[in-house]
Amino acid sequence: MARRVFITGFGIISAIGNGVEETLASLTERKSGIGQVSFLKTSLSCFPVAEIRTDSDGLARLAGIPLSPVHSRTFLLGLIAAREAVRMSGCEGLCSSMGMIGSTTVAGIDQSDRYYRRLLCGEATHKDKIPSFECADSTELIADFFGITHHVTTISTACSSSANAIMNGARMIKCGVADRMLVGGSDSLSRFSMNGFNALEILSPTGCRPFDNDRNGITPGEGAAFLVLEAEEMVGSRTVYGEVSGYSNCNEAFHQTASLPDGTGAFLSISKALQSASIEASEIDYVNAHGTGTKVNDLSEGRALKTVFGKEMPLFSSTKGYTGHPFAAAGAMEAVFSLLSINHGLVFPNLAFETKMEEVDVVPVTQLCRRPIRRVLSNSFGFGGTDTTLIFSKV
Predict the structure, then answer these.
(1) Which range marks the domain in which residue 348 is found?
(2) Phi and psi at residue 274, in whole multiples of 5°?
(3) Going by fewer Cβ within 10 Å, which terminus of the chain is more open, N or C?
(4) Do 44 and 161 share a domain, yes or no?
């Protein structure tokens, strides 16, 4: 019989707060983190973002480490979230038996934004920054901080990255390859990502409006979240906040950036996650949707939800109206929101929604709802059609 995978700790930092308590307060008070850019130097400052209002010096203080010139913003955000997760789990002394799967899309690109051109010109002054450019850097630095050596790897599958980190960590525990895993992701705002989404013409000029008929694009965000996963028999008397009870990944391979408009990939991901959890669609109490605010993504996901749940649609919402789209960190951040939903009996509102989509009859929750929540389904859909669905359950 496969082992059960329990969640004993989680940590988060985003534009709506540093830590679980600040985050929960912002979610319940409908406090969005979307606003004008402050720290990122970009020619696209006319577009709103969900930025953490702290510079690298401040982040290093929050992380409890001296700032090094080679520390990327992505690493600092990740370490802050990971430290909270490990503290909450009460397994600080057990890190040597822990594995780690981190994730990112931009990695240390805040460093390469600043120094890449100088390095191309042959300047040797900034060669010490080069290791921070690659995806594995933040994961390896966090693993080194905790002394994790058992299994350390990094996933980069665009916006589904940290959801895939959670899924793969859970699979390792279920299969007996690991007893406990630190899983999650981190991404920071950068000129590279802003310019890239601007080139795709999907930056929202007003702030994202997930599932609204008049939605006009994404709002880039930044942040990090990590979870501590443990096999049931390893937990002992420590607190359990939830269980990873189902998961699935489906690769559409339809387009470099867009999802299948008819929702086929999202439908398969959701359906297979329900099958993995051995539950019926009617047993889902809340769906934390991917809901980025783009025309194609929201329509595709809306159609998939309608196909899976039919007339028995559970309460659903996208929380990206709070945090923007934090890219690789999205799945892990929304896993934290799912756990807060389960442990506090809350469904968080879909901010900025006014008008139902013309093409599909789905309406998200627009007010804070208080009710018992036993199971949450969380979607994370990435570029290239890498669709991932996670199911979290009350224990």
Answers:
(1) 248-393
(2) -60, -40
(3) N
(4) yes
